[in-house]
Write a structure and sequence with these properties.
The protein is an alpha+beta fold. It folds into 2 domains: 147 residues, Up-down Bundle (Four Helix Bundle (Hemerythrin (Met), subunit A)); 236 residues, Alpha-Beta Complex (paralog of FGE (formylglycine-generating enzyme)), CATH 3.90.1580.10. It has 9 helices and 13 strands. Strands 1-4-13-8 form a 4-stranded antiparallel beta sheet. Strands 11-10-9-12 form a 4-stranded mixed beta sheet. A 3-stranded antiparallel beta sheet has the order 5-6-7, with no helix packed on it. Strand 6 and strand 7 form a beta hairpin. Helix 1 runs antiparallel to helix 4. The radius of gyration is 22 Å and the shape is globular. The N and C termini lie far apart (52 Å).
Length: 409
């Protein structure tokens, strides 16, 4: 546990290390939190739920920090509005790193002197580590948004992105029948992955890879963003309100489509998976192709039959932060895949008592399920049963498209 704690906390610091001081406080939109807030919030989680409750004679670093770094835990007291996180010019970024160092030293001392970690302590430690790994992914997407909104479009990392060669399109089949999905095992998982239950699936098939930029450009070229018949009503309203015409970060330069990437402005790689599309765009593209999106139940069974996480090397550890080489049918660690499933509790779901009950259960409304992980997801944080969820209009995550179709009517 001590080794894991040190590794996770170090990784977070490494992610933000290329930033300038001014980058840490920016909040271009309400959905994006300033990097310094992420650093403070993940630290507050350990201080509030572990040290304050389980370390004898622990002294808070600053009693005001609970108000500014509590995210949505109503049981833990008052907090600033999410939209006000960008006003936190104070405490300074330097003070936030002092806070992290202070809590890290206290946590290391606590873990070194604990004879046995079990029960509530273990539960909060596990949640805290996985919680920070979720925020590592959010840090990557938020930093990209912050720098991508800067008129100068500065680079976050000066790296050469791996070339991408998509596999030849094939259709992976799943026969009709009953299957079990959900998490069943001794290792960490979130409560929204419980419990294991039986689903019936009709025979279907799905693409062995994600939709490419080339294929999405064909959709755009056919008037995809101007044809109301391709869109859900609320999706069409989004297109008109936003005057949408392309995935997020795309723009034309001298008549050629380009996009903002972690390493600056790049020409669109036609072979790479299209990313930064929202659910409305994914659903419209599928309808244009006379196909559909997978349900989350279908996706999990497809992953059980055709996925092998051991062959994948394109999670966060690649430090590419962009979909790369196509391995393992691109099921794991390339881009989050929109499903056509609303985020709802599984049968037999039981919400945790207390503060941990606020982690997932109260968000089970008005959101769609994402599956598969992305190039910003830590590999040891991901499981095929992992249920991510986002509002259907959002584009700033590394979200892509996989098509499916029924094989028998």
């Amino acid at each position: 546990m001590l080794s894991r704690y040190k590794k996770v906390r170090k990784t977070t610091n490494e992610i933000v290390s290329p930033l300038e001081t001014e980058d840490f406080v920016a909040q271009p939109v309400v959905d994006v939190s300033p990097p310094k807030w992420h650093l403070g919030h993940t630290t507050w989680f350990f201080e509030n739920f572990v040290l304050k409750n389980f370390k004898k004679d622990y002294k808070l670093f600053d009693s005001n920090f609970a108000f500014i770094f509590n995210s949505y835990y109503e049981s833990q007291g008052k907090r600033i509005l999410r939209s006000k996180r960008g006003t936190l010019t104070r405490p300074s970024t330097e003070d936030i790193f002092k806070y992290r160092n202070y809590v890290d030293q206290e946590m290391i001392e606590f873990l070194e002197n604990s004879l046995e970690i079990k029960g509530d302590v273990l539960q909060f430690l596990e949640i805290g580590l996985n919680h920070e790994q979720q925020h590592q992914e959010l840090l990557v997407t938020d930093i990209k948004f912050i720098l991508g909104c800067n008129p100068l479009l500065p680079k976050f990392q000066d790296i050469e992105l791996l070339s991408t060669m998509p596999p030849k399109l094939e259709w992976l089949s799943v026969t009709k029948g009953t299957y079990e999905i959900g998490y069943d095992g001794p290792n960490f998982h979130f409560d929204n992955e419980e419990g294991v239950h039986t689903v019936y699936l009709h025979e279907f098939e799905a693409m062995n890879r994600l939709v490419s930029n080339q294929e999405y450009l064909e959709f755009m070229g056919s008037g995809g963003y101007t044809r109301a018949e391709l869109w859900l009503m609320v999706g069409w309203e989004w297109v008109q309100a936003e005057q949408a015409e392309a995935p997020f970060y795309w723009f034309k330069e001298e008549g050629e489509w380009c996009s903002y990437q972690i390493n600056g402005i790049q020409k669109i790689n036609l072979d790479a998976p299209v990313i930064h599309v929202n659910f409305y765009e994914a659903e419209a593209f599928a309808r244009w192709k006379k196909c559909r999106l997978l349900t989350e139940q279908e996706w999990e069974v497809l992953a059980q039959q055709h996925g092998d996480k051991s062959t994948v090397n394109h999670f966060q550890e690649s430090k590419q932060f962009h979909p790369g080489v196509a391995l393992n049918n691109q099921l794991f660690g390339t881009a989050w895949e929109w499903t056509n499933s609303a985020y709802l509790p599984y049968p037999f779901y039981k919400q945790e008592e207390g503060a941990l009950g606020e982690y997932n259960g109260k968000f089970m409304v008005n959101q769609m399920v994402l599956r598969g992980g992305s190039c910003a997801t830590p590999s040891d944080h991901f499981r095929p049963s992992y249920r991510n969820f986002f509002h259907p209009h959002l584009q700033w995550q590394f979200t892509g498209i996989r098509l499916a179709r029924y094989t028998n009517k």
